[in-house]
Amino acid sequence: MRDYPSNKRMLLFSGSAHVELAEKIAENLNISLGKVTRTKFKNGEIYIKFEESVRGADVFVIQPCGDPVNDNLMELLIMIDALKRASASMINCVIPHFPYARQDKKAEGREPITAKLVADLLTVAGMDRMIATDLHTATIQGFFNIPVDHITAIPIIANYFKTKHIKNGVVVSPDVGGVKRASIFANQLHFPLAILDKIRPGPNMAKIDHLVGDVNGKVAIIFDDMIDTGGTICEAVDVLFKFNVQKVYIGATHPVFSGNAVERLCATRAEEIVVADTLPVSQQTCNSKVKIVSVAPLLAKTIKKIYHCNSVSELFKGENLV
């Protein structure tokens, strides 16, 4: 935090990554988005200018870093730098989808820990606080020496499934690493938990070895933090039907949807794919099996709590650290 006297103004700005989400958040806060000029030079360099004074204000910048990841990340870094040089009192970055989160450790020699690198870049640029939604692993919070509010969309997605009044349901984690996340989701629905065990021969590659738990004759909900290419989820659907499930639903927070992921998912026997709007999803996708629930009200409440120095954990009764 810079040593500027705050005049307790809240200003909300959006990067170009997901303006629709930022507008929803602003609507929930009953304020207007601040004006930002964004252009690119012929060689691809990004130019940012804030069109109103931010001096002494508590600023919130909304920028999920989805595709194109590097452009969106660089734009966010430039916005932070501009705000710091314009004497903003607090720079709070709302990053619903944190980039490079899967590169959080060294699995083999001579590999980077890119999630830590991104944390350092954001901090050195001048970010004072980060609000993130369902990080790939909660330990990423430890890469920062500034406050991180780690919120979860699990209750929102769980509430959607509660409206379906599913009987004899089971929540399935697509891998061992997602067991805690899936367990919280299962507790929200009061369903038992099953686990699929997988190995990764390489990036964006997965092979499911076996199933732990009982899914026979049940309605299964596969739950994960993100869907990228859809390979793991599609294989999980096929495996579950081999174990005689009645129906399969899919739930995830982040709709990364790389390549032809949506087409692959819609071609499976899954009933629906339910995701949050942490990343933009095309209208064409929304007309398929994919159903969107919004995290905008939750992010707006979180921003309000932070601005008024109230507890964020109260929103989740202490269960926001997935």
Which key terms come to mind for this protein?
globular; Rossmann fold; 322 residues; alpha/beta; 7-stranded mixed β-sheet
Describe what you observe in this structure:
The chain has a 7-stranded mixed β-sheet, with helices on both faces. Helix content is 29%, strand content 25%. It folds into 2 domains: 164 residues, Rossmann fold, CATH 3.40.50.2020; 140 residues, 3-Layer(aba) Sandwich (Rossmann fold). The protein has 9 helices and 14 strands. Helix 1 crosses helix 9 and helix 4 packs across helix 5. By secondary structure, it is α/β, with parallel strands linked by helices. The longest helix has 17 residues.
Mean pLDDT: 93
Could you tell me the CATH topology label of the largest domain: Rossmann fold
Count of helical segments?
9
- Shape from CA axes? globular
String of helices and strands: EHEEEHEHEEHEHEEEHEHEHEH
What is the helix content? 25-40%
Count of individual domains: 2
Q: For the report, how would you describe the main beta sheet?
A: 7 strands, mixed
Strand content: 15-25%
Identify the strand order in the major beta sheet: 10-9-8-11-12-13-14
Detail the poorly predicted runs. none
CATH architecture tag of the largest domain: 3-Layer(aba) Sandwich
Structural class: alpha/beta
CA-CA gap between termini: 27 Å
Number of beta strands: 14
Radius of gyration over alpha carbons?
20 Å
